[in-house]
Amino acid sequence: MTATSHQQSVSGSSADSFDIVVIGAGYAGLYALHYYRKLGYRVRLYDKAGGVGGTWYWNRYPGARVDIESMEYSYSFSEDIQQNWQWSERYASQPELMRYLNWVADRLELRPDIQLNSEMKTARYDEAADRWHLGLSTGESVATRFLVLATGILSAAKDPQFKNRERFKGAVYFTSSWPHDPVSFKGKRVAVIGTGSSGIQSIPEIAKEAAHLTVFQRSANFAVPSCNRPMEPEFERWVKDNYLEIRERELRTHVGCAIVGNEIRANPTKATFEVSEEERLEAFERCWNAANFSYYTVFTDILTDKRANDALGDFIRDRIRAQVKDPKVAELLTPHDHPVLTRRLCAENGYYLTYNRDNVLLVDISKSGIDEFTEKGLKAGGKEYEFDIIVCATGFDAMTGSIMRMDIHGRGGRQMSREWAEKGARTRAGMMSEGYPNLFMLNGPTSPAAFFQPVLLGEWQTRWFGRLMRRMDQRGFTAVEPTVEAENEWIQHNIEVADHTLFPLAKSWYMGDNVPGKPRVILSYLGGFSLYRSTLEASEDNKYTGFKLERAKLSQAAE
Ligand code: NAP
Hints:
Elements: E1 17-23, H1 27-38, E2 43-46, H2 55-58, H3 79-84, H4 94-107, E3 114-115, E4 120-126, E5 131-136, E6 141-149, E7 171-174, E8 189-193, H5 197-209, E9 212-217, E10 223-225, H6 233-241, H7 243-252, E11 259-260, E12 263-264, H8 277-288, H9 306-323, H10 327-333, E13 346-348, H11 351-354, E14 360-364, E15 370-373, E16 377-380, E17 383-386, E18 389-392, H12 401-404, E19 407-409, H13 416-423, E20 439-441, H14 454-475, E21 477-482, H15 484-499, H16 529-541, E22 547-551, H17 553-558
Parallel strand pairs: 1-2, 1-6, 2-3, 4-19, 6-20, 7-18, 8-9, 8-18, 9-14, 10-13
Antiparallel strand pairs: 4-5, 5-6, 11-12, 15-16, 16-17, 21-22
Helix pairs in contact: 1-14, 9-10
The chain binds NADP nicotinamide-adenine-dinucleotide phosphate.
NADP nicotinamide-adenine-dinucleotide phosphate binds at residues 66-67, 154, 160, 193-199, 201, 218-219, 344, 347, 369-370, 393-396, 509, 514.
């Protein structure tokens, strides 16, 4: 289908406006464009990037790789796509993920309805007409009935605000917006600031090439083997033959991943200390040899019971120490300040072994932070270090950043960024916000996005919104938004669920801690996808309880 075939759209809207505008050409946005077009809507997708790919378009730093099995971190909606794409590795690298998403965009003929290099800057809701008016970075204005934000949970890079940043004469790169031209570290003195997932993936690759690498660590994180390896043809065949069962099982697991090693696994049934020590260690060992997400569901109480969590934490701490030759360095790299899994578990590929190299130095900045940048490098703890290149792997304004950076005005001119800055993200199920009708979020804040395979969640939410729009059209409704009560109830429920877990004990981006001044509240739903899904499906079956549906003002006046 092409753009021109949409002139006769569901709403019969004019050619210069759309039924649906989707912002973001990552996994979620591309599927939304495809699905809504198929429903007959006139859809346009905008992305500020120069290509499709979303987070994978920007995060092209050395070593970037997904930490969910490639066969699972892929679209489930199309048997054609599932069966015909071939992953070369168990955990796909960034270039392969880009090849996949570009292949999908071509196969579904999405490109005619995608406009790249076009950032949505402003969105204003016109209450009289039930339309959103969007202002783009290109200077264009666009009108749409429904606005779908597929802007990603980790796409708004955090500004670490290093003092005197402009003084440094060398090159500064951010992992979150890595240059498209290759960066050579050969013969260079390099610094990496940040030891989260991005730092942990890039450090081993940079160390292999640089003359010298200095890593500045403010906090240590838990990292486990990525377990990447070339795709085994038998494994690929087995998954492709059993996709139906695997996808169904994924939706019933807590994290949206069903494959552990070469098996399909269900949710755990046993608590950590219900089993013998031997059985417990065997279970941890299976995770160590399997995949990142398997740890989250190894036992029923791993995220809720501190003693159970410590058992896993101790297992991983021992493994970290065993890899690093210098005991002082090993101790610095071993986390003690948060329960394991309450910050995102990192997937590593030679990370700890990198500190055994002669050309790598770890600098602990847990007490001092970075003092300032200087002309020749940077100062930390009062000491100056000289570099040619500084790499910042300093993270994101997660979950809310990408939405709050757009100037969105709802009913009565209410401004989303101002309201969220004061009160934290306010949504019903991470899908919609009261006061901002017809604005739909995919993988939005307080949805399970950070704890559930986001490709599947985006697909499921896209279809839920699709059914809602169809129902609105059939019944003559032109605006939908959550009620204040339903929004409050969701926020309260989210907090209560999180308070039953160990997550509030850690300083993390899940809680908004990594951005100074951000309200401290859990940003991702921890109650599990099954409960999330049944809550939203029950609302749908019950004429959308928790949501207000309205008819057009003009037709009301005529009645
Ligand atoms: P991150 O986990 O937030 O890590 C940022 C790092 O930078 C932390 O070590 C942080 O220290 C440090 N930092 C931030 N500001 C600093 C400052 N002003 N001075 C010194 N240090 C500073 O960010 P990320 O590594 O980009 O990862 C974010 C998320 O993206 C991950 O949790 C994961 O969900 C996702 N991701 C996934 C993969 C993958 O494997 N598929 C790869 C990359 C990213 P503190 O901890 O002390 O704040």
